[in-house]
Design goal:
Layout (H helix, E strand, L loop, with lengths): L4 E4 L13 E5 L9 E7 L9 E5 L12 E2 L14 E9 L8 E6 L2 E2 L1 E6 L2 E2 L4 E2 L5 E4 L9 E9 L5 H8 L4 E2 L2 E2 L3 E6 L3 E9 L4 E9 L6 E8 L11 E4 L5 E7 L6 E2 L2 E2 L2 E8 L5 E9 L4 E4 L3 E4 L2 E2 L2 E5 L13 H13 L4 E3 L6 H10 L2 E6 L8 H15 L5 E6 L10 H7 L6 E2 L4 E2 L2 E2 L6 H9 L4 E2 L17 H9 L6 E4 L7 E3 L5 E3 L18 H9 L3 E3 L11 E6 L10 E7 L11 E6 L10 E5 L11 E7 L5 E8 L3 H8 L10 E3 L2 E4 L2 E5 L6 E6 L2 E3 L2 E7 L3 E11 L2 E10 L1 E8 L4 E8 L20 E6 L7 E8 L12 E8 L19 E3 L4 E5 L5 E5 L5 E4 L21 E6 L30 E8 L2
Parallel strand pairs: 29-30, 29-37, 30-31, 31-32, 32-33, 35-36
Antiparallel strand pairs: 1-2, 2-16, 3-4, 3-6, 5-14, 6-13, 7-12, 7-16, 8-15, 9-10, 9-11, 9-13, 17-18, 18-21, 19-20, 19-24, 22-23, 24-25, 26-27, 27-28, 34-35, 38-39, 40-41, 41-44, 42-43, 42-45, 45-46, 47-48, 48-49, 49-50, 50-51, 52-57, 53-54, 54-55, 55-56, 56-65, 57-64, 58-59, 58-61, 60-63, ...
Length: 934
């Protein structure tokens, strides 16, 4: 088999003699997309008991071996984890020229215990722990230029109980295998073994060097070159004399460096050379470096380059359905881009993610909260010391890491806390997630009131490392607007991390490749298992947008100016751009939508934290439009956020878009029946409900409405009358509704004009008029769900909303096909956006159906359209959503909130049922609709 050998040296420089550089030969593939086959024997489960082939790197379950276990096995009666052992065998050759060098075999990650031998001889002690890089010196074990045999025995459950407690008794899928790359590393006898780097924003560079074979008279030569611009000139080389000691500290300074921050991720390649007394280069190596200064100021916050950080973070596991925890560079880059795309600037995980992923965060600009494993139990001190040392050696140099976590939710070994400072060349701050410790309150899942209390009554920095909760459609974006606004008013608020990034549905090779989320344990994501965007992704993007627009209306007299706030941390607003478009919207019967005008918005040159005025030079014909859309983009062209503003109110739009009148006979009213244009609507004389609709003599399945939602009303009487060519039925009520006027036009368009909450005597509406808690308010109708094929509408979309998750959807024309997606339900088909649920500010909607299509127009602003009732997740005992109204299709003035990890009563005011009071002289509220069955 042919192996790739690469030489690590400064990118873009001319080739150096091989003896001077670190040479690397991969024995496995680089990631899940580029693997190498090894021989494999699994002790139990799928495909066990026989030598076969397996892709390396991989989680062996995803290659069809062994058994699946979710980490909460110990909570199930009689639960046991899978405990299979895997044996790997692989033959390889190394160049004869490597004779005399130090040759190491490096494993980036193995789950969970790994015993390694080369040519039948043990490479070293068994390594325990899944998430850190480890290596063995195999210089004396290999046949240079000849064939070598590598054997690795991997135990899925560790022989060290503390490893199992920290890593395997956890709320995630447990895998086995060599899941990260394996490679050989050849070093000259005199070499730099490790470099700890502290690169400050002012260009100061402190290096903690570990060397081998170094004698007196050697010097260290150092230079830097921008990573993003390989054509840029390398900096002048700096030289420092070294002593013969194995470890030493070197201080350098480079002028003119551009500092690293998440909005300007300037990276450099640092080239280090050991220069012998005779001037020859004994060893040359390179490191990626970002110059930045990170500090924690007690009772103040985290600072980067002197700027106080506001962490907009998300918790992410290294996970993908088909590949488990095996990294994949393409997918990892896509993940970071998608996370940044919703305007997050930080990621946290429960374990070291591996240096390649941190390279991506360095280059794309994401802050990283790096955590020593320990989900809710900790390592022993001896094992934890080893794993902490490995984590620091592999990952401490990354500029994206701004803080360390020692375990999670009680999985903290306090004896390890002092070691972080000893091992970290940058001395970054250490916290205990979910605890108030070391000056940082990381309280998990604070209620709205709890967060306020901890901030207003406390004196420590507040940074919840888990808050809200994205399980199913719960949380994530729900109540984020209120949480963030309240917390941000306090200077002790440092930001926080939403739980969690993606639904962790694993593709089960033992179940026909179906997706399994272990019931309610793993569907915790803002996005689906294959990164399908759920509604909260757009809400988070809007709430966390670094450009915020003050509330405004766009009317004919608008002068084109609006207020914008710069909520970047490091960027002036003019580093971004904003465009506008003015469009008209089609009606259901017309495709008259067109672009009236488009252009750029003049943004003010304001610094972070400032507010200024943006302006559009209004073109001729501007007032002809229906919607103004604004799109903000980064300098690289990535969308920051989209805003859209209706330029007409619902009744004004209806006046232009209503169905055309049809000349013909006048409509008629006969007791409880309206008829016109071939449409006949019959109402129940006892309660005023729509009994039936027929169109040209054929029954139409819209009925049983208007059913009152959130209120009570009782019919007092029905009066029929003629108004020009229209026929009317006027229904009077006692209770919450005053009246409903039904109108039939000669064209067969049926209108409903309902007046509710009209109390001219100024009295309160008591329990005899309303449900105990008004979560929904309006009217419902029956319509068969099986008839629906899709919906096309003008309103906010395309995602459904909750009362406490209104931000994110954008006003415009939308279309989506019927689906029965249960958000995050791994066993079902996940088509997003979900069809069922509440849709905001609907102007008109067209129900698409082979048998019963119809259109409905609204003259009521802020009206919610409810489409059917979403199914509850099958594997959840508790209700995840507030009860939906009776009926199938509803037109509502109020909708309920969505709960998070906490009960809905512990979220902000927007999540709570509304209080209703109409003062004396008010005309109440109106819901005015038009149904077109033609």
């Amino acid at each position: 088999m042919k192996h790739n050998i690469i030489t690590l040296s400064l990118l873009g420089c001319c080739a150096m003699a091989a003896a001077q550089n670190t040479e690397v030969q991969y024995l496995s593939g680089r990631d899940a997309s580029a693997t190498v086959e090894w021989k494999f024997f699994c002790s139990a489960g799928q495909n066990s008991g026989k030598w076969r082939k397996i892709a390396v790197p991989s989680c062996w379950e995803q290659q069809g071996f062994g058994e699946y276990t979710y980490g909460r096995w110990y909570k199930k009666p009689g639960g046991k984890p899978s405990t299979e052992t895997g044996r790997y065998r692989h033959e390889f050759r190394v160049p004869a020229a490597w004779q005399g060098k130090k040759v190491e075999i490096v494993f980036d990650g193995v789950m969970t215990d790994a015993t390694v031998s080369v040519n039948g001889k043990t490479a070293g002690p068994t390594h325990r722990g899944a998430f850190t890089r480890f290596a063995y010196d195999i210089s004396r074990l290999i046949d240079y230029g000849g064939k070598n045999t590598l054997e690795v025995t991997v135990k899925k459950q560790s022989d060290d109980s503390s490893v199992n407690n920290a890593e395997r008794r956890a709320d995630w899928w447990l895998f086995g295998g060599i899941y990260r790359p394996v490679y050989l590393r050849a070093l000259p006898k005199t070499h730099i073994a490790h470099t700890g780097i502290d690169a400050k924003a002012d260009g100061t560079l402190t290096l903690d060097l570990t060397t081998e074979g170094l004698a007196d008279g050697y010097k260290l030569a150092a230079s830097i070159s921008p990573l993003q611009s390989q054509a840029a000139q390398q900096s002048p080389q700096k030289s420092v004399s070294l002593t013969s000691g194995k470890r030493q500290r070197v201080a350098l300074r480079f002028d003119g460096v551009k500092p690293w921050d998440p909005e300007h991720p300037n990276m450099y390649v640092l080239t280090l050379s050991l220069v012998a007394p005779d001037g020859s280069v004994a060893h040359r190596t390179s490191e990626r470096v970002g110059f930045r200064t990170i500090e924690f100021r007690p009772r103040d916050g985290f600072y980067l380059n002197g700027t106080k950080l506001n962490i907009k973070g998300v918790n992410r596991h290294c996970f993908y359905p088909e590949t488990g925890r095996t990294p994949d560079k393409r997918r990892d880059i896509a993940d970071v881009r998608l996370i940044k795309g919703m305007n997050a600037n930080a990621i946290r995980s429960h374990y070291p993610p591996g240096s390649p992923f941190l390279d991506i965060c360095d280059s794309l600009g994401v802050l990283y909260f790096n955590e020593l494993p320990g989900w809710q139990n900790h390592y022993s001190t001896a094992t934890g010391t080893q794993i902490l040392g490995e984590m620091m050696a592999a990952e401490a140099n990354h500029p994206c890491i701004f803080v360390w976590g020692n375990g999670n939710e009680g999985g903290n070994n306090l004896k390890l806390d002092p070691l972080f400072a000893e091992l970290d060349p940058q001395r970054r701050h250490v916290v205990h997630p979910w605890a108030l410790w070391n000056g940082v309150d990381c309280h998990h899942y604070p209620a709205y009131q709890t967060g306020a209390g901890r901030l207003h009554n406390g004196t420590e920095v507040f940074m919840p490392t888990e808050f809200l909760h994205s399980q199913y459609d719960k949380g994530g974006g729900a109540s984020l607007d209120e949480y963030w606004a309240q917390w941000s008013r306090n200077p002790l608020f440092a930001g926080g991390f939403i739980w969690a990034w993606a639904d962790e549905g694993v593709m089960r090779t033992d179940r026909g490749d179906s997706i399994d989320t272990d019931g309610p344990n793993a569907p915790d994501g803002i996005v689906g298992p294959h990164r399908e965007k759920e509604g909260s992704w757009y809400t988070i993007r809007d709430v966390w947008s670094p450009i915020q627009i003050a509330p405004m209306t766009v009317r004919p007299q608008w002068d084109g100016r609006f207020k914008v706030a710069n909520r970047f941390l490091f960027s002036r607003l003019t580093e971004c751009s904003m465009s506008y478009s003015v469009t008209t919207l089609p009606s259901p019967a017309s495709d008259r939508g067109r672009t009236v005008a488009e252009g750029t918005v003049a943004l003010p040159d304001i610094a972070p934290g400032e507010t200024g005025t943006a302006a559009i030079t209004l073109p001729e014909g501007f007032a002809e439009g229906d919607v103004l859309t604004l799109v903000a983009t980064t300098a690289a062209g990535d969308t920051i956020n989209t805003w859209a503003y209706p330029m007409r109110y619902a009744d004004e739009y209806y006046a232009l878009a209503k169905p055309a009148a049809v000349a013909g006979r006048a409509a008629t009213a006969d007791g409880t029946t309206l008829e016109g244009g071939g449409v006949r609507a019959e109402f129940n004389p006892d309660d005023g409900m729509l009994k039936s609709v027929t169109v040209d003599g054929k029954a139409f399945p819209l009925s049983n409405g208007p059913l009152p939602v959130g209120m009570k009303m009782k019919l007092k009487g029905i009066t029929a009358r003629q108004e020009g060519a229209d026929a009317l039925l006027v229904m009077r009520y006692q209770g919450a509704a005053d009246s409903i006027v039904w109108r039939m036009t000669p064209a067969g368009v049926l209108g409903m004009d309902a007046v509710i909450l009209n109390r001219r005597d100024g009295g309160k509406f008591g329990g005899e008029f309303f449900e105990p808690k008004v979560r929904n308010l309006g009217f419902s109708f029956s319509y068969p769900e099986e008839a629906a094929k899709g919906v096309r509408w003008v309103g906010k979309g395309p995602y459904r909303v909750w009362r406490n998750r209104l931000r994110g959807p954008v006003f415009g024309l939308w279309q989506k096909d019927y689906n029965n997606t249960v958000t995050g339900e791994g066993s079902g088909r996940l088509d997003y956006p979900e069809f069922k649920g509440y849709h905001a500010n609907v102007y008109w909607a067209e129900m698409q159906s082979d048998t019963a299509p119809f259109k409905v127009y609204s003259e009521t602003d802020g009206l919610y359209l409810r489409l059917f009732t979403p199914e509850e997740p099958k594997h959840r005992n508790e209700r995840t959503m507030q009860p939906f109204p009776e009926g199938d299709i509803s037109f509502l003035l109020e909708i309920p909130g969505m709960r998070s990890y906490k009960p809905i009563e512990q979220l902000g005011p927007e999540a709570q049922p509304s209080g209703i009071r109409i003062n004396k002289g008010d005309d109440g509220l109106r819901i005015k609709l038009w149904f077109d069955f033609r």
